[in-house]
Design a protein that fits this description.
Radius of gyration: 21 Å
Largest sheet: 8 strands, mixed
Bound molecules: S-adenosylmethionine
Number of strands: 16
Order of helices and strands: HEHHHEHEHEEEEEHEHEHEEEEHEHHHE
Number of helices: 13
Structural class: alpha/beta
Distance between the termini: 24 Å
Helix content: 25-40%
């Protein structure tokens, strides 16, 4: 089993799949509609789908995918909790880094990928305005119409005076100068699954069995998959027979597109993952793929397509390599705990008023969850990429682990 239970603030003991709470009839009907669509696509494709395509449909099929349809997703009433939902301290620390980089750039816009409930944007904007940071527009590239509406409502309530500076985008702009940020975006990108049998690479696919979705390990037919697995083996050595894992083949084209539009500025990405040598350790032989459903974590991605999140950890060496190929330099890589402490988490906490007991205790608890090694502190990492911006980042001043990538 993967040894991680990421993107969950509180960690429930991992239940067996049959211990998950049963969805209601409407939710099951919704999932059945998405399954029917996937089964049609399997038939049209000659009997198999790459896992990457299955994950794409499961999460992003128009009107039906997990991130596109109306499920609650984030927060206590949803399926998982992300750092910006845990504590405003997360955004306040990111704001320190953003203000510093905007200052070095002489201004610029901010673009957030996949803005979730809009809480990070609201907290970040409040902190930037409070600190009088110079920036132009705050753009949100959001794939989900439902989340856009939720973000708009959050921002209208929290920062009404700034609404005219907030724009929603469907795709990357043609040119961009400024900062691009994304929290837990890379882990939501569809991945390919692969296995090793007798030294050969197999592809993890989704097929139909008696009108139900099933997993199958077949001769690869996804372009680039075998070469990518062999490139991993070039770093970590031959993977053992029976080994299974995932690989994100979308990372490289995505960063190429990002690098092409960024005229000058930085990209700051926060996610859970490892350097390549650690990600593809021989003992991590069932990969890192996990599903989140109502704060339960399990490992069956075919269970209820459309109702559960599916994620894979991030290979940060792959991010650094793809960034380099895209003309983006590595500004730093460190743990979330180190990054937040280096950008003033303790100072921000020290400024909270203990007399306001409820708020103070919430901030202390949030800081613990964000930084303790057994919580999110070590498992989550921050990577900084830059183009035309030669400036040291304070977030990497305590501990830069870039040489491990
Ligand atoms: C786990 S959620 C995180 C949401 C939010 N950033 C947070 O921290 O609460 C992942 C988000 O990434 C978005 N996403 C995935 N791939 C993306 C891409 N290529 N461009 C923009 N957003 C993307 C998804 O739509 C989803 O909203």
């Amino acid at each position: 089993m993967p040894d991680t239970v990421p993107n969950c603030a509180t960690r429930p003991a991992r239940p067996r799949v049959d211990e998950l709470p049963e969805p209601g009839p409407d939710a099951l009907a919704h999932s059945a509609r998405l399954q029917a669509l996937i089964l049609d696509e399997i038939a049209a494709a000659g009997g198999r789908l790459s896992f990457d395509r299955y994950m794409e449909l499961s999460l992003y099929a128009p009107g039906l995918g997990y991130y596109v349809a109306g499920a609650r997703k984030f927060g206590a009433a949803g399926d998982f909790v992300t750092a910006p939902e845990i504590s405003p301290l997360f955004a306040r620390c990111l704001a320190v880094q953003c203000a510093e980089l905007l200052g070095a750039l002489g201004g610029g816009d901010i673009l957030e990928f996949g803005a979730g409930s809009g809480v990070l944007a609201a907290d970040l904007l409040e902190a930037l305005v409070e600190g009088r940071a110079a920036f132009g527009a705050y753009c949100i590239l959001e794939l989900s119409p439902e989340l856009r509406e939720r973000q708009r409502a959050t921002l209208a309530e929290r920062v009404p005076d700034l609404l005219s500076r907030i724009r929603w985008l469907d795709r990357l702009p043609e040119r961009f100068t400024g900062l691009m940020i994304g929290n837990e975006v890379l882990d939501a990108m569809p991945v390919h699954r692969f296995g090793i049998a007798d030294g050969a690479v197999l592809e993890g696919c989704v097929v139909a069995q008696r009108d139900r979705l099933a997993e199958a390990w077949l001769e690869p037919d996804s372009p680039g998959l075998v070469d990518a697995v062999r490139a991993v083996e070039g770093v970590v050595g031959p993977l053992p027979d029976g080994y299974r894992s995932e690989i994100n083949l979308r990372l490289e084209p995505w960063l190429r597109a990002v690098g092409a539009v960024l005229t000058a500025g930085a990209v700051l990405l926060v996610d859970y993952g490892y350097p390549r040598a650690e990600y593809y350790r021989a003992e991590r032989n069932t990969g890192t793929l996990l599903c989140h459903y109502r704060h339960r974590v399990h490992a069956d991605p075919l269970r209820w397509p459309g109702l559960q999140d599916i994620t894979a950890s991030v290979d940060f060496s792959a991010v650094a390599l793809a960034a380099q190929a895209a003309g983006l330099g590595l500004a730093g890589y460190t743990t979330q705990a180190s990054f937040l402490l280096a950008t003033g988490l303790d100072r921000l906490l020290g400024g909270s008023d203990p007399a306001d007991v409820v708020q103070h205790l919430a901030l202390v608890q949030g800081a613990k969850t964000l930084t303790l090694p057994g919580e999110m502190g070590e498992r989550f990492k921050v990577i900084g990429l830059a183009k035309g911006l030669d400036h040291p980042w304070s977030g990497f001043a305590f501990r830069d682990l870039g040489d491990r990538l």
